[in-house]
């Protein structure tokens, strides 16, 4: 077999990973698991960045990944703090219970 | 050749981890699945010569973020299995439909050959140009992108401060007493 | 130089009205009334001064533009000062000032005293706008304003439903006339492309075909019939007696109702160009004169007799202007203003003295209690009956003379006029006998007394004018005709037959008719009350018809008012309410319903929102990629 793994393959993989993450958000009720799915999506984006950087011959892709990583970390920290604060109030981590803004 | 094998293996691991995250009933299993995905993605970075990023991925993402996740799971005590039935009507069907539509679009694009990145996805002109060593990354980061770098530092500080504020927020005396009594 | 001050004629009463509107209450009676009287008197003095050139003779009219309103269509605030408008101004302000003075006494104790004078002054200003207008637009403005003031004054005692109804009736019937008038004005505009008198009258003979002239003339007649209470639009005037008596005197006797006559005289050029308009006007006038006179015979209310009398005398004026005897018509307008205002003010004096009693059958023998009123009312009665040498004789005789001289169809109208003179003398004498002669018929609670000086002085003044006013235009010295000549330059005026013999013949006939009427009424009514019924019974069903005004109001009510009300009700309740309100409410309900359904989208569930996000994103991506972007 003479298949070459092109950056396109990586991007496809990243797309699938992203879709799985999106699916997970729509399906899961547990706030923490939803957060993990968000991390999945972020990873998919990072993978795309690296692959694209490689395809275009520039290091900017990897730089972008670096920053995304940092921001994702910060975001996780704050998000988990919020979840903990909510959990203190209601003893449940289900997002379906947070429906007070209903019309 | 090597790359192909690694890609297949690690790609499979990524997807397996992702599916675990989606489907596991116990959030701890979901966290483990995420861990697997993160590691597999790190390997994929290495294959693409993004060494520094791979290291940071393992250290920060798998090492800190995931650990934090696990801590919180344990802290708020949802490490038990939970009910997987769907409460919102049509939710699963809609999600599935959306997924199918997305795949359909992708298929149409493939068939039409309209993926814009296909031509450039043929392979790098100079594979060593994107060798992501620490040195190579540090140069642009501390010259062209130093402002962004400092901004992220600021961001981290703010995040830390905000988290501390959130965590130490207590409601007025009477309610917490009731809360404690209710427990 | 004085022409630059002409705008003051209108401005003085108008300013007084505005002033009294804001400050009147604080000034209080009687000062508010005196101020109002002074304003009108000032206009009279100014008018007198400005009319001097016309008295001397030979002067032509001037037009003074005050403000360019709509120059493109020939409408500006311009005053046309010629002998005709000068004469009208003097009548309006002169008689008006006397009536204002009278009202100070009559309205004593009225809570809305100053408001009354605001309306009166506003009326005088509006009427002056009408007669001083130099173009049809300003004329129409004044026309409508006097209608408004009439409405305000008729329903002055608005706590009385009958007063409100009368005011509405006056306004609505006037409006019907105004519709015809307005269409006539539109025709004038399409024919002449301007509305100014100068542009219209001088070119009339060149521009108008007989058909167009006829159309315009008849339409103007419709308007004039509404304003001057001719058949078929006279029904508002008797009901207008609901207003205070000074109002009846000023508006519904001396001035507003003469607006129709004035307009026809003004537009004499146009009427002349039409072969049938003149006869039509004259016929309407003569018919109305006789019709109204017969109704007046059987009325019991002292003011309603005078109301129908006014309608009848206006008919005479229409007869005159229809027969191209414009000077005769205007002359009768003037003398009628004198004696009719006198009669109304006298009636007001009686009502005032009799504690607001208006039924003549409850009066009688008042000559002893109210001598000045009785004497002046006698003068007025004799004047209107056409007995020489009082004013009414000269003017009425000139009208009859003109009709006689025209011949043909007009001879028939002359006979009608003669008969009407007899009937007029009869019902006026009847009124005098019932009120002032014979034995008292009132009950003990009423204590009739003479009226205060503010009321009797105007009575005396008007009586004097009724005595000598006829001498303004006798066949021996046609002073008024010379005065008015410049205004009627473009028109061929009709005159009574020349020669002393014809004059004596015609005068003798009309005087005999008048005396016959007087004698008959005296014989019939100067007796105990029970014997009247026998006299009235002689007329059988006719008397009942007369007392009910031939039941014209009933006819109008059944044929016009009831269907109109039905139409209004249907429109309101069967169309507007379900359809329009329903549509509007329906839209509201629709919005509510849609909102109620749509509310479900905001379930509060993050995951539902997530689905929407995803769907939207996929849609955008699909659109972007699939169209090749």
Task: Write a brief caption for the model.
The complex is a heterotrimer of chains A (103), B (183) and C (629). With 183 residues, chain B is an all-alpha fold.
Write up what this structure looks like.
The complex is a heterotrimer of chains A (103), B (183) and C (629). Chain A is mainly α. Chain A has a domain at 30-93: Orthogonal Bundle (Helix Hairpins). Chain A is built from three helices and no strands. The longest helix of chain A is centred in the last third of the chain and has 31 residues, at 60-90. Chain A is elongated and about 55 Å long. The relative contact order of chain A is 0.13. Chain B is mainly alpha-helical and 183 residues long. Among the domains of chain B are: 1-79, NADH-ubiquinone/plastoquinone oxidoreductase chain 6, subunit NuoJ (Four Helix Bundle (Hemerythrin (Met), subunit A)), CATH 1.20.120.1200; 145-183. In chain B, helix 5 packs across helix 6. Chain B is extended. Chain C is mainly α and 629 residues long. Chain C has a domain at 553-626. Chain C is built from 27 helices and two strands. Chain C has a two-stranded antiparallel ribbon. In chain C, strand 1 and strand 2 (75-81) form a beta hairpin. The radius of gyration of chain C is 30 Å and the shape is globular. The N and C termini of chain C lie far apart (85 Å). The chains are: A mainly alpha (103), B mainly alpha (183), C mainly alpha (629). Chains in contact: A-B, A-C, B-C. The interface between B and C is medium-sized, with 11 and 13 residues.
């Amino acid at each position: 077999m003479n298949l070459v793994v092109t950056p396109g393959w990586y991007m496809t993989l990243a797309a699938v990973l992203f879709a799985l993450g999106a699916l997970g958000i729509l399906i899961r009720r547990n706030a923490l698991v939803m957060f993990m799915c968000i991390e999945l999506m972020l990873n998919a984006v990072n993978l795309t960045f690296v692959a694209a950087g490689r395809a275009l011959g520039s290091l900017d892709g990897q730089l972008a990944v670096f920053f995304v990583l940092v921001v994702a970390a910060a975001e996780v920290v704050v998000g988990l703090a919020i979840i903990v604060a909510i959990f203190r109030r209601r003893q449940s981590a289900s997002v379906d219970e947070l429906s007070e803004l209903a019309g | 050749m090597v790359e192909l094998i690694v890609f297949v293996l690690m790609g499979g691991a990524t997807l397996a981890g992702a599916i675990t995250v989606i489907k596991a009933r116990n959030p701890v299993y979901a966290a483990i699945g995420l861990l697997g995905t993160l590691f597999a993605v790190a390997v994929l970075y290495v294959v693409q010569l993004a060494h520094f990023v791979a290291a940071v991925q393992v250290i920060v993402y798998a090492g800190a973020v995931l650990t934090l996740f696990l801590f919180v799971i344990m802290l708020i005590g949802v490490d038990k299995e939970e009910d997987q039935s769907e409460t919102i009507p049509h939710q699963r069907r809609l999600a599935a439909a959306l997924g199918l539509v997305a795949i359909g679009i992708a298929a149409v694009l493939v068939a039409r050959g309209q993926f814009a990145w296909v031509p450039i996805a043929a392979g790098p002109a100079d594979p060593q140009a994107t060798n992501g060593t620490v040195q190579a990354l540090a140069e642009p980061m501390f010259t062209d992108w130093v402002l962004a770098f400092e901004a992220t530092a600021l961001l981290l500080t703010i995040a830390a401060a905000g988290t501390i504020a959130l965590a130490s927020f207590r409601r007025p005396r009477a309610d917490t007493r009731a809360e404690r009594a209710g427990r | 130089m004085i022409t630059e001050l002409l705008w003051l004629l209108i401005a003085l009463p108008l300013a007084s009205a505005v002033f009294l509107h804001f400050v009147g209450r604080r000034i209080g009676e009687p000062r508010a009334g005196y101020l109002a009287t002074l304003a009108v008197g000032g206009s009279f003095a100014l008018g007198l001064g400005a009319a001097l050139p016309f008295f001397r003779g030979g002067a032509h009219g001037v037009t003074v533009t005050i403000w360019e309103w709509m120059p493109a269509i020939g409408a500006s605030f311009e005053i046309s000062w010629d002998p005709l408008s000068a004469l009208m101004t003097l009548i309006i302000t002169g008689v008006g000032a006397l009536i204002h003075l009278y009202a100070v006494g009559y309205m004593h104790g009225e809570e809305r005293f100053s408001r009354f004078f605001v309306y009166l002054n506003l009326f005088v200003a509006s009427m002056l706008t009408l007669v001083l207008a130099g173009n049809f637009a300003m004329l129409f403005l004044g026309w409508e304003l006097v209608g408004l003031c009439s409405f305000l004054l008729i329903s002055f005692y608005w706590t009385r439903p009958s007063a409100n109804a009368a005011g509405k009736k006056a306004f609505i019937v006037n409006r019907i006339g105004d519709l015809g008038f307005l269409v006539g004005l539109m025709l004038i505009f399409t024919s002449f492309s301007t509305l100014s008198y100068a542009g219209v009258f001088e070119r009339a003979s060149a521009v108008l075909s007989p058909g167009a002239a006829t159309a315009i003339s008849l339409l103007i007649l419709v308007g004039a019939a509404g304003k001057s209470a001719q058949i078929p639009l006279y029904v508002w005037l008797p009901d207008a007696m609901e207003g205070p008596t000074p109002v009846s005197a000023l508006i519904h006797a001396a001035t507003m109702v003469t607006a129709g006559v004035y307009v026809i005289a003004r537009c004499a050029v146009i009427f002349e160009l039409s072969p049938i308009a003149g006869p039509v006007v004259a016929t309407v006038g003569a018919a109305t004169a006789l019709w109204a006179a017969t109704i007046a015979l059987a009325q019991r209310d002292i003011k309603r007799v005078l109301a129908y009398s006014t309608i009848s005398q206006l008919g005479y004026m229409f007869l005159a202007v229809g027969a191209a005897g414009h000077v005769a018509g205007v002359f009768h307008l003037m003398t009628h203003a004198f004696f009719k205002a006198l009669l109304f003010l006298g009636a007001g004096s009686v009502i005032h003295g009799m504690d607001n009693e208006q039924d003549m059958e409850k009066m009688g023998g008042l000559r002893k209690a109210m001598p000045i009123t009785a004497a002046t009312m006698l003068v007025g009665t004799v004047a209107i009956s056409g007995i020489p040498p009082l004013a009414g004789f000269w003017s009425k005789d000139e009208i009859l003379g003109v009709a006689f001289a025209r011949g043909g169809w007009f001879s028939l109208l002359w006979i009608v006029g003669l008969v009407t003179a007899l009937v007029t003398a009869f019902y006026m004498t009847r009124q005098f006998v019932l009120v002032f002669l014979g034995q008292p018929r009132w009950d003990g609670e009423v204590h009739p007394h003479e009226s205060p000086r503010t009321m009797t002085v105007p009575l005396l003044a008007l009586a004097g004018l009724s005595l000598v006013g006829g001498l303004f235009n006798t066949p021996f010295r046609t002073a008024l005709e010379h005065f008015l000549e410049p205004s009627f330059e473009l028109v061929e005026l009709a005159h009574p037959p020349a020669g002393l013999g014809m004059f004596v013949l015609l005068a003798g006939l009309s005087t005999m008719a008048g005396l016959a009427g007087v004698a008959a009424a005296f014989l019939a009514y100067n007796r105990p009350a029970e014997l009247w019924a026998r006299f009235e019974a002689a007329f059988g069903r006719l008397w009942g018809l007369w007392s009910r005004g031939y039941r014209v109001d009933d006819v109008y009510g059944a044929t016009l008012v009831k269907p109109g009300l039905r139409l209004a009700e249907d429109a309101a309740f069967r169309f507007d309410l379900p359809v329009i309100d329903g549509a509007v409410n329906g839209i509201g309900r629709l919005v509510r319903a849609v909102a109620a359904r749509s509310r479900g989208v905001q379930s509060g569930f993050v995951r539902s929102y997530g689905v929407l996000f995803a769907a939207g994103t996929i849609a955008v991506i699909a659109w972007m990629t699939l169209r090749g972007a």
